[in-house]
Specification:
single chain; about 160 residues; alpha+beta; 2 domains; about 15% strand; extended
Length: about 160
């Protein structure tokens, strides 16, 4: 429905910064409001980051951000695991699948985490994963991060 709040997550890679406040991103959002006469709207903001000395840093992550990051990381880990399998790097692929499994357990996705763990074990023992398990993992992790293909979203920017 049109009354739902929409959100998005931006992944920003920033080099190490000195202590202090830094402007790290100028964000310009251009949009239309479907169903209304608002067209060609623009919102701009500068994202600032305050860097504190390590001794003063706290490592609390917003629960909503953590929720989505765990799922995104699980998807990316399984995706890179299959790339490692294709390149013949079975041990690396197994490690990535185990890391994905841990993320999924942490996210409360117990059944999917077990499937990933089983495929990691199968891969380590036999050098190959089952096609069924591979599909369940790929589509299961993709389903955790929303509708559509993450691959399409990553390449459409």
């Amino acid at each position: 429905t049109g009354s739902e709040t929409q959100g998005f997550l931006i992944e920003l890679v920033i080099p190490p910064l000195q202590v202090g406040e830094h402007a790290v991103l100028k964000l310009t959002l251009r949009y239309d409001m479907p169903g209304s006469s608002l067209r060609d709207q623009v919102a701009e903001d500068v994202v600032r980051l305050r860097v504190v000395p390590a001794a003063e840093a706290t490592y609390l992550v917003d629960a909503t951000v953590k929720h989505w990051l765990e799922r995104l990381m699980a998807y990316r880990l399984q995706s890179s695991a299959w790339q490692a399998v294709e390149a013949g790097r079975i041990e690396e692929a197994t490690q990535r699948l185990k890391m994905a499994s841990t993320r999924l357990f942490d996210a409360g996705e117990i059944a999917l985490a077990r499937t990933v763990e089983e495929e990691a074990t199968r891969l380590l023992r036999s050098g190959a994963a089952s096609e069924e398990g591979r599909k369940r993992i790929k589509f299961g992790t993709r389903g955790l991060i929303g509708h559509g293909s993450i691959d399409e979203r990553e390449t459409s920017t």
